[in-house]
Amino acid sequence: MLIYPLHFVKVVKSGLEAAIIEAIARKPKGHDFVISRRAPQAAVGRHMNVTGG
Fold it and tell me: Do residues 32 and 38 lie in contact, with contact meaning Cβ atoms separated by under 8 Å?
């Protein structure tokens, strides 16, 4: 016995797919690693492990 009708599963899947596609579309195409365009300071006062990386 199915808990959910199959048409409901398709609706949920299509909504999930739409959300994933929309999120990917918002993702930046790359990262801006040129420091002079972001800030005059070339370094931050913490190590990567403090940042969480």
Answer: yes
